[in-house]
Amino acid sequence: MTMSPLISAMIAAAHAAGEGLIADRERIATLTIHSKAGAADMFTEADLRAEATVREHLMAHAPDYGFLGEEGGLTPGRDADHVWVVDPLDGTTNFLTGSPLFAVNIALARQGDVIAGVTYVPAMNELFWAETGSGAWLGEKRIAISPRTTIEESVLGVGIPFATKPDHDQFYAEMERLTPRVTGIRRLGAGAIDMAWVACGRHDAYWEQSVSAWDMAAGVVIVREAGGVVTDTRGGELDLMNGTVLASTPAIHAGLLAALARV
User: Fold this and answer.
1) What's the CA gap between 218 and 68, in Å, rounded?
2) Looking at the structure, do residues 119 and 203 belong to the same domain, yes or no?
3) Domains identified in the chain, total number
4) Where along the chain is Mg(2+) 1 bound (predicted)?
């Protein structure tokens, strides 16, 4: 296993941000909590510090690339073809409530296609990473999607719409169609971890109907390099800005698309 300079820089940025998040987790009671769109959608100084850390590291590696961060939005770069896509703290609610399921997500998109991704779960010391053509990895171990071949055997991950999200009726319909057919459905509360778990076979699929580019971007290349399929939830070519994602094993992808058909 040989890491490229690109992946090495992304991993260094993720580790640095993760160290800061672990330190901030020890002083959660002192963090000021801000609301983006109601009490269910929060961020803190920890999010802001982590994004600043990631940005500093990535800009040192490639100062001409654009930067799209959850907290700071889009800063165009002189190189219009390349954009970093970053969620410095995916799973803020988990972070604030003591769950270890939160992650630093870093992706690089070239002309809208993700070519490298890192998802680092610092509280569990798990580092998922991939670069196009180089496979998907959990630390130094190469990973692959689940060998299960039927929906009935499958364990699925899902993003459940909370108070400020749309498509609640759609979600109810999906549950009605799928819960009688599958082994289990899980909600981790951090979409990038869901996608990483598809890549390493812990889940057979993950979908969400209202998801941001920075939540899914890193997972796109990790799942694909592990042998999975990533589309939007109607089966179309994935658009990071489109807001929906379905990552799955190839064997169950078509069946899931039928179950996710619009109400």
Assistant:
1) 13
2) no
3) 2
4) 70, 87, 89, 215
- 231 pLDDT band, cuts 50/70/90, is very high
**Are 110 and 208 in the same domain?**
no
Residue 77, class by beta-carbon neighbours within 10 Å (0-12 exposed, 13-18 middle, 19+ buried)? Answer: middle
In the three-class reduction of DSSP (H, G, I as helix; E, B as strand; rest coil), residue 247 is classed as: strand
Domain that holds residue 116: 5-142
DSSP string, 170-205: HHHHHHHHHTTTSSEEE--S-HHHHHHHHHTTS-SE
Instruction: Confirm if 222 and 117 have CB atoms less than 8 A apart.
Output: yes
Is residue 28 a contact partner of residue 61, using CB atoms and an 8 Å limit? no
User: For the domain that residue 78 is a member of, what is the CATH number?
Assistant: 3.30.540.10
The conformation of residue 3, written as its DSSP 8-state character, comes to: -
| Cα torsion 254, 111, 92, 165: sign | negative
Please, what is the average pLDDT of the chain? Answer: 93
Q: Does 134 lie in the same domain as 10?
A: yes
Instruction: With residue 258 as reference, give the H or E element that holds it.
Output: helix 250-259
70 is in an annotated binding site: yes
Q: Is 208 annotated as a binding residue?
A: no
**Is 215 among the annotated ligand-binding positions?**
yes
Q: Does the pLDDT at position 79 exceed 60?
A: yes
From 99, 114, 142, the end of a domain falls on 142
Q: Which residue, chain included where needed, has tokens 């689940």?
A: 146
Is 64 among the annotated ligand-binding positions? Answer: no
What's the CATH code of the domain at 193? 3.40.190.80
Domain boundary among 91, 119, 142: 142
Q: Which 8-state DSSP code applies to residue 124?
A: G
Is it the case that residue 17 has pLDDT exceeding 90?
A: yes
* Inter-CA distances, 258 with 155, 214, 228, Å: 17, 26, 18
